[in-house]
Amino acid sequence: MPSVAVIVHAEGEGAHVMADSFHSSDRTRVAPSAMHGEVIDPRESGEWDADVLRHADSTIFHSRAWAEVLCRTYGHKPHYLRLTQNAQLRALLPLMGVESWATGRRGVCTPFSDFCAPLTFGDCNPDFVVRRHVEDLAGSHNWEHVEVRGKLAPTNTSALADRHESGAQAWAPPERSKRFFAHEIDLAVVGRRGDAAASSSARRAVAKAKRSGLAVTFCDTPQALSQFWELHVRTRRRHGLPPQPFAFFKNIHEHVIRRSWGFIGLAFRGRDTLAAAIFLHFGKNSLYKFGASDERLQELRANNLLMSEAIRYLAAQGFTALHLGRTDLHHSGLRRFKLSLGAAEDVVSYSHYAYRGRVGAGGAQPSGKAVGKLFRLLPPVANRLAGRLIYPHLH
After folding, report:
1. End residue of a domain, out of 126, 152, 171
2. CA dihedral for 244, 248, 250, 255, sign (positive or negative)
3. Which of the residues 28, 182, 351, 355 has an alpha carbon 20 to 30 A from that of 194?
4. What is the tens place of the pLDDT at every residue in 189-224?
C-alpha cells in the first residue's frame, strides 16, 4: 500500500487538502523534499507582497494590487499558491480563476498581464511547480486548463517520475502555442550614461518633437487618466479592437497608481494631448503597459518623445529595468519601435496545461480582418459597449 503525505492548505474559505502519494520504499528519498502549499488570497495577506519582492523578477502582475484590479473589475477569484520546503520559501504562483459561460473555466497566471511566470527560489523548477501543485486545485474548481505566462525551465522528468499514479488524470505536456517578443531596457546602463539608449532614428524623432514644441509630463491625477482614456478609445478603434472598460483603468488608477506604483505620461502641445501611456512598477522593475496616440499628428513623433523622457525619468528614480510588454511576432512596426529605444529582445511563451477537455480560446483577443473592420466601423459608444461585454470572458 502506498503511503500518503498530506499537505494542508491555508485555513479559511477555499482551503482544501492536497494528497501527494508515493511508495513507502521511496519515503526516505521523497519525504524530505515534499513541498507544503497554501492557497492565499493576496488581498487578505500581509506577507504576499513582501514575499514577492524577495524575487528579482517580480513585477506588478505578481502583486496584491493587480489581484485587486482583476477582482474588482471582472470578479475573478484569486487562488495564489505559496510553496515552502522545510520552512523555506520555494515558489509563488499567482493564479486567477476565470469563469465564463462563453469561454469556459480556467486558471490564469495572471489575466491581462504580459508575463507572470512562477517566482521560484533556489533550484526549484517552475514547470514542476505547476504540474505537481496545481492539478488538485484545477480539479476542485473544474478548470479546463491552466495558462502560465512566462518562461518555464525544461521539464524535470526525474522529479516528475517521483509522482505515484493515484487515479487522478495526468497533466498533458504543456502546449506552448503562443509566443511573443519581449523587450527590456537596462535602466542601470541608461542611468550611468545619462541619456536614453536609442537608435539614431529615434534620437532624430525626439529632436523633431522638441522642435515642434511638444513637452512631457508625468502625473497620477484622474484628469490625466481621462486624457489617456480618450486617446486609448480612439487608438483601439483604429486598430480594429474594442477598448477595455473604463472600470479597468479606474481600478488601475485607484489600486496601483494612487499607491505610488505607477504613473501616467502625457505628451502635449498647448492644450492638446498627442500621446499618453501608463507605466507601472513594483520593486526595481518597471513596465510600459498601455500606450495611445492621436493619429492625426503622428508626424510630430509624440510617442518617441514620451518614451524617451519616461526612460530617463525611470532611470533617475533608481529602477533597474523597463519592460516594454509583449509584441506579436507579426507586428514588425511595433517591434522596430521598441528596438529603436535600445531594448534587448527575447521571446516569451504562454504555456497551457490541459486538465480536462481541450485548451480553450479564452485568452484570445478579438481578431481577424472582418472583426477588425467591424470594430473600426462601429460608433465610439458601440465600441466601448462591446469592450464591456467582451472582456469579462477573456484573459
Report:
1. 171
2. negative
3. 182
4. 886 666 665 788 888 899 999 999 999 999 999 999
Rounded Cα gap, residues 78 and 40, in angstroms: 8
Cα 151 from Cα 174, distance rounded (Å): 12
How far is it, in rounded angstroms, from Cα 220 to Cα 268? 16
Q: Given a cut of 80, is residue 13 above it in pLDDT? A: no
> Which set of grid coordinates corresponds to residue 84?
515552502
CATH label of the domain that carries residue 109: 3.40.630
**188 Cβ contact list (under 8 Å, min separation 6):** 315, 320
**pLDDT tens, position by position, 27-75:** 333 334 577 888 999 999 889 999 999 999 999 999 999 999 999 999 9
- Distance from the first to the final alpha carbon of the chain: 43
Residue indicated by cell numbers 492548505: 9
Q: How far is CA 127 from CA 8, 119, 144, 154, 157, in A?
A: 22, 11, 18, 7, 10
**pTM of the full predicted structure?**
0.84
Vertex 176, ends 112 and 18: CA angle to 5°?
Answer: 75
Q: Which three cell numbers stand for residue 208?
A: 523633431
Predicted pLDDT at 188: 86
* In contact, 134 and 168? CB cutoff 8 Å: no
Rounded Cα gap, residues 288 and 267, in angstroms: 15
Distance in angstroms (rounded) separating the CA atoms of residues 29 and 13: 34
- The rounded distance, in Å, linking the Cα atoms of 188 and 56 is 14
State the pLDDT at residue 173.
53
Last residue of a domain, one of 171, 202, 228: 171
Domain for residue 361, yes or no?
no
C-alpha cell at 54: 524577495
